Amino acid sequence: MTAPKAVLAIRVGRKSYPVADYAEASRMVEAARDRSGVGVSHFPDALIFEGDALVAHVSYNGRVWAGHPRAWKPGDAPLFDNRVPEPGR
Fold first, then answer.
1. Within 10 Å of residue 45's Cβ, how many Cβ atoms?
2. pTM for the predicted model, two decimal places
3. CA-to-CA dists, residue 21 to 10, 14, 37, 42, 86, angstroms
């Protein structure tokens, strides 16, 4: 028997929201960013957890990257790129 896959959740500050996948997390951050009216320097980190493990983050531009925001380095490829059309959309 295989263990059930941990649920993905996006955490911004002290609030956490379940997400189906990285695409949904990206859309949620883009919507929150657009509503906030603040720039990148004031927008909080959007972290994605699988269970208790930090697996990714969503940048201000809506792309999803592996690990913590401060671990990003030039040349890293996004796990989800919101500039690429999703199949069926």
1. 14
2. 0.84
3. 10, 20, 25, 25, 12
C-alpha 22 chain-centroid distance: 6
Residue 46 main-chain phi, psi, to 5 deg: -110, 105
The rounded distance, in Å, linking the Cα atoms of 20 and 35 is 22
Structure tokens that stand for 18 in this block: 């379940």
DSSP H helical ranges for the chain: 22-36
Q: What is the pLDDT of residues 7-64, one digit of tens each?
A: 899 998 889 999 999 999 999 999 988 888 888 888 888 999 999 999 999 999 999 9
Burial class (CB in 10 A: 0-12, 13-18, 19+), 18: exposed
Total Cβ atoms within 10 A of residue 69: 14
